[in-house]
Amino acid sequence: MVGRRRELLGFAAAGLLAYAADLALFTCLRGPAGLDPLTAKALSFVAGCTVAYAGNALGTYRHTRPGGLRAYAVFFAVNVAGAAVQLLCLAVSHYGLGFTSQRADTVSGAGIGMALATILRFWGTRTLVFRAGEGTGGGPGPWTERNGGRVGSWTG
């Protein structure tokens, strides 16, 4: 149980850092750099994914030793799927159900959509990118009840 809590906290910490990087870069690219919103968001999204990958690879899941560019590509695909979930929630609420206020858009996109996307990202990150036992000699995964997580990692 303690291991799962550490894993969740590490994943959340990496996600918060990624969100901060995404938001800061988007703000700079839209403001002082003067880029259009879609270009600015695309660049900040890639930067946020990179920060999240680094945080998870070097922290939360560092014991798995993921395999380079392939692992990053899968991680990026999982994050694109998460972004699609957020957009789908917003589209269903706004266009399908007719909830068109700014508050409804925020609740559906940034609230419900973000929650569902985070669940998808967590599952995809731990299942598809940083698989338990991969690169660890095939032993039991890092977050089992038996071993309680990796001692000395930055997440606990």
Give an overview of the whole structure.
The structure is a single chain. The chain has 156 residues and is mainly alpha-helical. Helix content is 71%, strand content 0%.
Number of helices: 4
Structural class: mainly alpha
Strand content: under 5%
Q: How would you sum up the major sheet?
A: none
Mean pLDDT across the residues is 83
Give the topology string: H per helix, E per strand: HHHH
Outline type: globular
End-to-end CA span: 13 Å
Which radius of gyration do the C-alpha atoms yield? 17 Å
Low-confidence segments: 134-156
Q: Give the tally of β-strands.
A: 0
The residue fraction in helices comes out at over 70%
What's the short version?
This protein is globular. The protein has helices at 2-30, 37-60, 68-96, 102-129.
List keywords for this structure.
single chain, 156 residues, mainly alpha, 0% strand, globular, disordered C terminus
Helix and strand topology:
Elements: H1 2-30, H2 37-60, H3 68-96, H4 102-129
